[in-house]
């Protein structure tokens, strides 16, 4: 069980994924490996559904668009649940 007294656990996990992700999974930082039973890599276990690729809006360099929250929730539930 994690105690979130000192830091926001969800935000810390998001930072790890954003900074250490690869196309094949997440590289575990060296300082955290002793707490991960020596693992150095966590592979993705599910592929994204093919239908989600088409729903993503076009993003141009001069006109950035945010993904709709419903799409973010759908991607999250299909990958992490």
Question: Can you tell me about this structure?
Answer:
The protein is 37% helix and 10% strand. The protein has two domains: 1-45, no CATH class; 46-81, no CATH class. It has 81 residues and is α+β, with helices and mostly antiparallel strands. Strands 1-2-3 form a three-stranded antiparallel sheet. The chain is extended, with a radius of gyration of 16 Å. It contains three helices and three strands, in the order H-E-E-E-H-H. The longest helix has 12 residues, at 9-20. The protein has helices at 9-20, 50-55, 69-80; strands at residues 21-22, 25-27, 41-43. This is Seryl-tRNA synthetase. GO terms for molecular function: ATP binding; serine-tRNA ligase activity.
């Amino acid at each position: 069980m994690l105690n979130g007294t000192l830091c926001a656990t969800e935000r810390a996990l998001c930072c790890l994924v954003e900074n250490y992700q690869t196309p094949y999974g997440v590289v575990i930082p060296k300082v955290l490996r002793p707490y991960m039973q020596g693992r150095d890599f966590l592979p993705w276990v599910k592929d994204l559904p093919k239908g989600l690729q088409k729903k993503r809006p076009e993003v141009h360099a001069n006109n950035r668009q945010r993904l709709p929250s419903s799409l973010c929730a759908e991607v999250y539930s299909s990958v992490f649940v």
